């Protein structure tokens, strides 16, 4: 019996001294853990709030950049549309100007052709039908030879003119040779006495 009460005595005496320490220690650990967990939660919440704010700010900046990009795209599209319109207007103006230039050139060529054709027709009417003239050039040679012979026939001299001696022929007084239409003989001397 002596062993058991000693053990029990030890328990009864040691329990009241250790129990409050353990309880206090547990309570202190619990409070300390709660404090640290609250601090951790605060840090986590502040980080979460900061990252949320940062995410919202980045989202806002991204939306702003997207709006600017859309505005820039609209400006570029509008500028391209205006350039295309002005280019098409310039092409239309150039085409109209080209048509006017072509029409003016065609009118000029038409009048030039009319003038040339009219002069050609006048010349054709003046000459006559050239198909009727074929072979007639050979027939015109004898009359031309006859006209040449007539020119070389001796000129009749009247009796009241003086007879020219042989020495006068050297000075340009030709006899029996007609002068041409300019008054110059075939030998090159002037015949002013005819």
UniProtKB/TrEMBL annotation:
Q: Which domain of life is it from?
A: Eukaryota
Coiled-coil ranges (or none)? 62-97
UniProt KW keywords = Coiled coil
**UniProt protein name:** Uncharacterized protein
